[in-house]
Amino acid sequence: MQFKAAMFDFDGTITERGAYSPSKKMAFALCDLAKKIPIAFCTGRQLESFEKRGLTTLLQIIKPKDRESFLKNLFLFAENGAIGYAFDLKKNKFKPFHKVGWPNHFINKEKLKKILSDAIKEYGEVYENAHRIVIVMRTNLHDYEDRNIDDVYKLSDKIFAITVKILKKINKNYEKFVHAGNSGIGVLVCPANGDKDAAINCFAKFLREKRKIEFGKNAREILVMGDSPQTGGNDYYFLSGKYGTPFTVGYLNKKLKLLKPVLDENGKRLLNENGTFFMIKSLLED
Predict the structure, then answer these.
(1) Could you tell me if 187 and 227 lie in one domain?
(2) Is the Cβ–Cβ distance between 259 and 246 less than 8 Å?
(3) Dihedral of CA 100/251/61/45: which sign?
């Protein structure tokens, strides 16, 4: 299939496992890909965090002559897809074009934040005053540069288990209203209609209307890449196959029938940044 656009999870997909920012080779590959097709990052990070950890690094690496063409074809779906941004070249900043609201009929957002904050304090904290829509919880190791990433994952798993238990207590059918996702470095709760799968559909709709790019009903012409499609993982809905053509550079959830691993020329699985880089280079060679 010839892809007309691409969407990437950020942490563990664009970056190497445990790294905050992309490498030079990844930055150059993304720049080249954006010359060919529109690209979007779909991340649990809020706008400011992506700008600090992602965009700033990318623009420092990319050659000045290539920045405009890169930014013209760059999109961001922050807060797990709850807010979509396109880059405004005239104002030199991201401009939102899509936003969902919090489902207060399920539970008041501030009330849920307080419940979660009290329940997870042994393992982490609710990230306050940063995200506009979603609730994000980070581990107690989030500020440690020399942390062991496996220890972070263990804490994140504990926070996720507590979160799901609380949501089920509120309503056993909570997934009709909100989704909980475990990225490995933290946990978030987002509106069910503002998760990463909905972001793929939104991206396709935007490109149809604004760029006159045609997509099929399920937008299979969009390459979708992530690393956490396990049940409860932050990319479970993203890589479910509802929209786009999904590839994993992390866990391979065999229950997701359309999900494929990334394999090199010898049939060996490629993970994280290496897998994403390989796929991008393959697209550039088509």
Answers:
(1) no
(2) yes
(3) positive
